[in-house]
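Worked example (supplementary).
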Amino acid sequence: MSDATTSQPPGGAATDSDLEILRLATPFREAPEELLRKIAALGRRARYDAGEAIYTAGEEADDIYVTVSGRIEHIFTEEITAQDPLKRMARGGVFGWAGLLLGHTKRLATATARDPSEVIAINTEKLVAILEADRVAGGAVMDRFAAMIQQEFQLPDLLAQVRRLTGQPLTEEMSALGLTMYRLSRWISSPRPYLMLIGFGLFISFWYLSVEVWKLPRFREMPGITTVFKEWISPNPTYGLSFYTPEYYHHILVSIWRVAQAFFLATLLGVPLGLFLGWSRKFKEYAFPIFEMLRPIPILAWVPLAIVMFVATESAVIYLAFLASFFATALNTMLGVESIDESYTRAANCLGASKWQVFRHVIVPGALPFIFTGLQISIGVSWFSLVAAEMVSGQFGLGYVINTSYMMVRYPTIVIGMITLGVVGYVTSALVRVAGDYLMQWRVRELALSGG
Amino acid sequence: MGTQPGVAGGAPLSRGSILIDNVVKIYDPDGAAVMAVDHCTLDIGAGEICMIVGPSGCGKTTLLNAIAGFHEITSGRILLDGEVLCSAEKPKAEPGPDRIVVFQNGALFPWKTNLENVVFGPLMQGKLSRRDAANKGRAMMADAGLSGVEHNYPGEVSSGMRRRVEIVRALMNDPRVLLLDEPYRALDSLTKSVMHEALLEIYYKNKVTIFFITHDLEEAIFLGHKVAIMTTRPCKPKKVLTVDIAHPRDYSVLTSRRFRELIEETSEAVHEEALKAFQAGEKEG
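After joint prediction of all chains, the assembly is encoded as:
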């Protein structure tokens, strides 16, 4: 180096010309002013004569360079099978980024000044620290580095993997809550929630118009939306059920409590049964035909037997809600085990895992995605059969509300019960999904990476 | 052995020799009786890279499965360092950490992080404590250029990296033989070339016998001490070639005269078998 290092005075602000050059560099092009100033403050200017090497391949990759003036020639070593090993750079050109790559600490190329050149050198580790301090903008700079390395330098994908900033979304430091918040913010900034609102809007206006304005045949017998909502929010409801009456919440809680018990039991018994059905061929031969014969019997057909079997109505209702749920869980779990690629179990055998270890480390986690699909279906059918059971033999609960309201000609209350069921059912199903995401971080991250 | 394998300095290996002795494999012997492997004999020295070349579906994988202990053989026997793995009396070998397979489509557990995958073997066998296994795993990953992805899931890294992680996972168990079943089939040619050198580098450091199935002749000659060109179904060696290019090798080998000569010598045999396989396929279809 011709040692014309006119470095910034320590702590001094970056000059505007530094900022200007950084803005020309692909990775920094869209970085906010504030971040750019911090980066520029790291920069040290250096001059090189024509023909002088800036660095050679194999050296420690400590600095990243941005070209200020002159011409730089950048040649990859032969080991890097880049499509075009030679690249020339002028003002704004960035090189020396090997330290940003995953698993690399050495220079992959040789950089030589062709003309007398001036560059800004930025220490890689300090740069990374600054980028890490600002998750969003820093992450964007890293992404632009990755894109530049792949596109402008045409490095094979295998090598062009940029380091992850700690604290960046989707790293192991990210907690489940953080991940949820990140997805929520993505969701809100996407068009999806607004489409959803439009969908609801259309549905509600159709209900309003068809029943109360156009009075279409058949529809006009239905309770109108204004009647239903007036009843729902009335402190003094005509038919006895609204947000203000404690009975409303009592019915909801009774139903939730029943579903919770049924779902819990179904999971507790259904998941192990499904795992064993999928795991042991012999067990499947005993049990599966019986299972398949019982599974299609509709829940309503079980009602008389349930009443005979269980003296207390409460346990009969839970039993009915449990049954459907149990079959869905067990069947999906079994399919999950059967879906596991044979090479996973073979690999585990090769690596010396015992039968039990294969079960614990391969079968169970491998089946988990199917199990959770099963659980989401299971909680749905659990609500479904609960309401059927409550209609037949219950004293409380949303199914009971709907049924008695029909008997007593309280039509708006029927609709209140139905909508409440829909909302509560949706929430419970969403809870199951969140639990699944929490247990299957590997899947969440994979899907997030594939652009989901 | 003419060439001394495992040669990047150091003594030759005393363990990891495989003898495939007159092995026959017939699928469904009482019914359709499809002969997959026909009196196949092949001697692989300790620490040797033996490349098995043949058209797709010729029965190479059947041979690998027999060594690994996934499938039974019908007759003949396979010996590992003189001990019988399987024979007519005991048709199926016991799978174990002395012979580890790297699968065609990769079999890293997607629900475990790369490091958890790597430490799986020693932990399952109870050979190392959790801490020792993690330390050894990190060191071996760093050696293979995999620092920084320990806590990523396999689904988050490139396919080339996944292959390297899988090989490290195998080597953690100090196996006698690595069985690779067309591991680079799904990779693009650029990545493939990087992976070849990475594999050789790992091999020079760890010295282990490698049984490598491929249908790519260039790959076979570039990597192997020995290249066995197999006939199409039923499978047996048609020609066994000793590659007299010294190890350690790097990419300059590909342009060397000797390499070209070897390709010329063998490509006809490979082409013949590929043609046979193609015609057989047409008949069946």
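Two points are worth noting when inspecting this output. Chain A has two domains: 16-168, 223-449. The beta strands of chain A are 44-48, 53-55, 63-69, 72-76, 86-89, 94-95, 109-113, 117-123.
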